[in-house]
Structures are given as C-alpha cells and as structure tokens.
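[job 4471] stage=fold_predict status=RUNNING
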Amino acid sequence: MGPEPQFDAPWGGLLKGMTALSVVILVGVAAAGLLTGPRGTLTWQISMIGLPLAFLAGGTFFIIRGYTVETDKVRVHRLGWESHIPLMGLEEVVVDPEAMSGSIRTFGNGGMFCFAGAFRNKKLGGYRAFATDLKKSVVLRFTDRVVVVTPGDPGTFLQAIRTVTGR
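[job 4471] inference complete, writing structure tokens
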C-alpha cells in the first residue's frame, strides 16, 4: 500500500469570522485590563489580562490542521498533537454540506480556531465534530456514535475511507 492519504482542513468563512471576533474580544479585554482598573491588584491582572490571553494562547493548540486516513483510524492533526477517530464499527460515510446545520454545541469549541467537541442537531442527534469548513462536512456513522470531519476535498476523503474500510 502507498502513502496514507492526507487532507488539509481549510477554514470556511464562518470559522474565519468567529475566530476574528474571538481574538478581538479577548485582546480587547486584555487591553482594557492594562489600561483601566486598579493598578497592582493581582486579581485584576489575572482576570482581566492573564485569563483572556491564556484562553487565546490555549485555543491555538486545538487548531485542526488536517486529517490522515489510515487502515484503522483517521488522525486529526492539531498543533503539536493529534486526535484519533477509530474506524472500527463504521457503518456509513457520506458527504453532507448541511450536516451541522441547526447544531447546538453541548461541550467543546464553537468557533475559536475550530468547531470541535460534542454537538447535537435534529438530523444527526448527538455527534462529535472536528471541523473547520462546515460546507465540506463528511459524516462518519458508527454503530455507537457519529463523527463529522471537514477535509478540503470531501469526495476524495470519502473514497479514501471507503477504500480502507470497504464501506
């Protein structure tokens, strides 16, 4: 077998807008903390400067940089680490640009550098997402869970999954 298929994770317009808004708010709070409030108060400095900048810095580690399809799993490349989606129990894989429409985030990141974590909507029920461009959604249905990923080329990703799993 040749090299494992790799896919980029381009950012869609919604993610770009949500990330920009998040950065502006967090940097704005930190700037306000520097320019206003009681000087020399540790509680103020931590809550108004340290926490917003820590959230911003910490969020960068969850950026989704791409995906690699392997025989037994999909690797989700982050900044300096990876998440794994085991392919055991995969029943169906489909490209669905509307998969995440109407979703509510139940736990996770809803738009600062990625859409990742636990979500729910009428179409999929509860599911896990590792997403950057919602219009490129690929739904992986397992016997016990649903996962959504958003590779740059959903059709080729779908074929790669089908090739390694026979589904």
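[job 4471] summary: Residues 13-35 form the longest helix (23 residues).
[job 4471] exit 0
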